[in-house]
Amino acid sequence: MIERYDPLKGERFQILGEDGRARPGLAPALSAPVLRTIYSRMVLSRAADTKALKLQRQGRLGTFASSRGHEACQVGTASAMDPGDWLFPYFRDLGAYLTLGYPLADYYHYWMGNEAGLRTPDGLNIYPLAIPVASQILHAVGAGLAVNYRKLKAAVVATFGDGATSEGDFHEAMNFAGVFRTPNVFVCYNNQFAISVPRSRQTASATIAQKAVAYGFRGVQVDGNDVLAVRAAVGEAAAAARSGGGPTLVEAYTYRLGDHTTSDDAARYRAKNEVVEWEKRDPILRFQTYLKTEGVWDEAYEKEVQDGASETVEKAVAAAEARPPAAVEDLFAYTYAAMPPSLKEQLGELNAFLKGGAR
Ligand SMILES: Cc1ncc(C[n+]2csc(CCOP(=O)(O)OP(=O)(O)O)c2C)c(N)n1
Ligand SMILES: [Mg+2]
């Protein structure tokens, strides 16, 4: 299916039109429970995200990168994965984490400043999220080489933003993936900005998907506000990866509805009417409209989903806040097996400062 959409011609794969109706012949045969599960994960992601922003403003959570508007990209990607697949996520991936079953309390705990929250529970194949832009793409290709070496049947999915495609790491990863035909699915959430840098200043390519062509593998651009299209494209790419078909680059075309992080003010560099236009394309509302036309959504169901999401979020906040805060030593502890004298000295200075001693 995705081969039919040529990224060099600017063709974009879409199942749900902006009116929420499925294009003729393209609606996947998904049962009502599956459709509802996808929807509830999108709603939970939005609720958890909104809460995180409030907690940050109250001083209860550190800097946070909002996933608002990325729910179709994140939930669509993760819901296309098999339990044996691996995810190498980045810092804007809340919906993918929740879809794969990561405990929200742990996710909050991490953003509250405790590394322990990133220790993935046994049985979940999620690599710790990457803050250094694009570094996770190389790690994912390394894991892909390992999958081939061990003759496993697993897809290794890496997610990243449009800005990551300007990093050397991205190009090295793509090159290795093409040459060694690794079982990778690269999913670029093209949300049109890398902090304040617009997509037009990131690359002179007409699409990000077309970069795959130069590296010798499939690339497809999908509507990143259409959860069914993202799920279908990533699902097809993952199936190919598991069966020796090599890597695929999926560009999910979307928009960052919020600020870059809580330390950014996007109103300083982009026009309000642009944001308003994209608010109308809200991925959750589009999918909700589809569910209505399919007869699997009504007001009572909406209330059930919203109430369930609020309860999950409140319980997760309480659980995360009940845990002890990170130790000051953690700032210095994990770079070397044994802490070198220079770090010991800095730790001593910090402890003295915290005790009200000399700066
Ligand atoms: C190697 C590196 N350089 C710079 C930064 C600072 N930084 C954090 S996020 C970001 C922009 C990322 O944009 P994009 O890849 O489009 O992802 P988005 O934030 O839009 O989801 C930058 C430059 C960083 N974290 N890592
Ligand atoms: Mg971006």
What binds here, in terms of ligands, is: thiamine diphosphate, magnesium ion
Largest sheet: 6 strands, parallel
Mean pLDDT: 97
Helix percent band = 40-55%
Distance linking N and C termini: 63 Å
- The computed structural class is alpha/beta
Shape designation: globular
What's the assembly state of these chains? Answer: single chain
> How much beta, percentage-wise?
5-15%
Secondary-structure element order, N to C: EHHEHHHEHEEEHEHEHHHHH
Q: List the total number of helices.
A: 13
Q: Please state the CA-atom Rg, rounded to the nearest Å.
A: 21 Å
Q: Give the strand order of the largest sheet, numbering strands 1, 2, ... along the chain.
A: 1-7-8-4-3-2
Uncertain stretches: none
Number of strands: 8
Q: Mind explaining what this structure looks like?
A:
The protein is of the alpha/beta class and 359 residues long. Helices cover 44% and strands 9% of the residues. The protein contains 13 helices and 8 strands. A 6-stranded parallel beta sheet has the order 1-7-8-4-3-2, with helices on both faces. It has a two-stranded antiparallel ribbon with strand order 5-6. Strand 5 and strand 6 form a beta hairpin. It is globular and about 70 Å long. The N and C termini lie far apart (63 Å). The model has no long low-confidence stretch (mean pLDDT 97).
